[in-house]
């Protein structure tokens, strides 16, 4: 089974084409899509206290703010739609205009964005999370 590229929060701005940061290059495939259109990511790639961005046709943010609690959001910045990137811990940042979001709640921490990231459904399926 193929997994969508994931950018892991590790202290640097992560992009799906940045192999030096440990993420997998985007190849345009949708092999990580779950039946029904959801994206899949291994639970092990979403450490406690961190957020990751799942790249793909519809990018998502998945976070584990506390042990065993997973949340997900649309990764499109609510300011102008650029895909946010995962920073240290639960911090998400928009590369376009610097808006900052809390990856555990989706809340805006710094503008120009005024609205929180839209929540997305997430469920655990064995050792994978299904988002969307």
UniProtKB/TrEMBL annotation:
User: Rieske domain spans which residues?
Assistant: 38-131
Q: Which UniProt keywords apply?
A: 2Fe-2S, Disulfide bond, Iron, Iron-sulfur, Metal-binding
Q: Which residues form a coiled coil?
A: none
Q: Which PROSITE patterns match?
A: RIESKE (PS51296)
* Entry keyword Iron-sulfur: yes
Q: Where is this region: Disordered?
A: 12-41
- On whether Metal-binding is a keyword of this UniProt record, the answer is yes
Q: What domain of life does the native source organism fall in?
A: Bacteria
Pfam hit, one: Rieske
**Gly residues bias locations:** 29-39
User: InterPro entries, per this entry?
Assistant: Rieske_2Fe-2S (IPR017941), Rieske_2Fe-2S_sf (IPR036922), Rieske_Fe-S_prot_C (IPR005805)
List the protein's name: Rieske (2Fe-2S) protein
The species this protein was found in? Tsukamurella paurometabola (Corynebacterium paurometabolum)
């Amino acid at each position: 089974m193929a997994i969508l590229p994931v950018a892991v929060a590790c202290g640097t701005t992560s992009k799906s084409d940045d192999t030096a940061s440990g993420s997998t290059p985007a190849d345009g495939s949708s092999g990580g899509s779950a039946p029904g259109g959801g994206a899949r990511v291994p639970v092990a790639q979403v450490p406690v206290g961190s957020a990751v961005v799942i790249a793909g046709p519809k990018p998502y943010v998945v976070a584990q703010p506390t042990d065993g609690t997973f949340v997900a959001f649309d990764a499109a910045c609510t300011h102008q739609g650029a895909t946010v990137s995962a920073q240290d811990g639960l911090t998400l940042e928009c590369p376009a205009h610097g808006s900052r979001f809390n990856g555990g709640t989706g809340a805006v921490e710094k503008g120009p964005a005024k609205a929180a990231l839209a929540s997305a459904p997430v469920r655990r399926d064995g050792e994978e999370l299904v988002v969307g």
